[in-house]
Amino acid sequence: MTEEPTITTIAQRAGVSIASVSRVLNGLPTRADTERRVLDAARELGYAPNSAARSLKSRRSNQVGFAIADIGNPAYLAMIREIQPLIKAAGYRLVLHSTDTDTADEIEVLRGLGERYIDGLIMVPLRMTPEHLEMFAAARAPIVVIGGAPDGTPVDNVRTDSRTGVRLAVEHLHAIGRRRIGFVNGPTDTVPGAARSAAYAEALAALGLPHDPRLAEVGDFYRADGARATARLLRRAPDVDALLCANDLIAAGALDVLRAAGRRVPEDVAVAGMDDTDLATLTWPALTSVSLGSAERGRVAAELLLDRLRGGEGPPRVVTVRPHLVVRASTAGEEAR
């Protein structure tokens, strides 16, 4: 029985090192003549190259990346549900990468575009640094950014108007009679955190409400952090009668803390979140939340990326998805049913 070819036999046939064969067959950059000799030898020996080696010849991987901050955030899951079928129908495989909000990790993902592991990338960076912008400008594959990006960013961008979303929530809380409206935010050095912090102050001013710094607390965009931030706010401002939370995970943490403290929702403290994810219908009481169009943003991002992969040209495009408020029992009580 003829033995299956190995990287050793391919290296002997091609007259190169085993390391060179490994680099070629794993899709890593190498000299063109070395690549040709390795692939020719592999073909002569009947070696079935893996997808990375095939992509090195065609310069296509048939894979699209989706880089997100937190794979457990239901807002990103809503995006995935829209992106996956569109990408699959176009003949691509979707590769997920969770960066845990690590900027350095995001930069490494962008560097990977040069090695052609993926043919295009959808990215949701929470922080936008000069290095991000440099990598966008130098990218050799199409990129779509979901989230706020500076004007002139050289990639397609799908964003939401979170400032309007915050205003809608604050106006709603004011309309149901709340005047001590607290805000539990994520990190203010992130794009969404900064935008929502500014929008909260603007919304209070527009309604003639004072901006009391004791009513604003910063944590992170996770449930446990939301709970800790809410506990700090309650200790500092026990007379708070409403909480706006920067996402639904934070709001779920706030509900946990309020329940443990014996504060009734919404009778004592009305609570609103942002993103209007599946989580908003699973909390008790069901959560009023601002829809930021996560699913729509995912769909539009996939459509923009596929257009570029099919050869679409032109300047970077910016698409804004408008928010809307979904009222549930956490602010309107039983009547919301």
UniProtKB/TrEMBL annotation:
UniProt-listed InterPro entries: HTH_LacI, LacI/GalR-like_sensor, Lambda_DNA-bd_dom_sf, Peripla_BP_I
SMART domains in the cross-refs: HTH_LACI
Record has DNA-binding as a keyword: yes
Domain (HTH lacI-type) ranges: 5-58
GO MF: DNA binding
Signal peptide stretch: none
Keywords for this protein: DNA-binding, Transcription, Transcription regulation
PANTHER family named in the record: HTH-TYPE TRANSCRIPTIONAL REGULATOR GALS (PTHR30146:SF109), LACI-RELATED TRANSCRIPTIONAL REPRESSOR (PTHR30146)
Record's protein name: LacI family DNA-binding transcriptional regulator
Originating species: Sphaerisporangium aureirubrum
